[in-house]
Known about the structure:
single chain; two-stranded antiparallel ribbon
Amino acid sequence: MTAASGSFSLLQRLLHWVMAICILAMLFIGVAMVRTIGPDYLSLISIHKSLGVAILVLALLRLAVRLRKGAPALPYDLPAPVKLAAYLSHLAFYLLMIGMPLIGWAMMSAAGYPIVLAGGLRLPAILPASREMHALLWDAHFYLAMAFFALVLVHIAAALFHLLVRRDEVFKQMTVGTE
């Protein structure tokens, strides 16, 4: 990882905000999907699958860029436990951004359902069909989605804390940059 500058790169900021929109959309689509049995269900499933694969690809790209470009240092006066919480929350974000789509893909594979994306691209099954595995993965996907939603709320609260209370450069580093 290279030394971090005073701000995230333009590519890092763009990936952050595009993924933020995708992840929020995915969380709300997921909630709508499991709450409906109406005619919109199949459309929501189709969007959910395609968006999940897009998030997986973007997350892998974002991780590669992060490993190459680094990240700006947190404010020197931030307490060590808060710095640790920031590090762990970002690690959790990457694990969830990569893990959730893979669990969804595995869940659909275990159910014997094809993963057909927008444009007709069909992904191969990554697990053999298994009712037990499907049920286990469905539960994991559901509960991790709830944890992901909670993490997003904590992340937004932390961003607002930096913007409105601490008034430091942290929020600016991910919006307009400080370069």
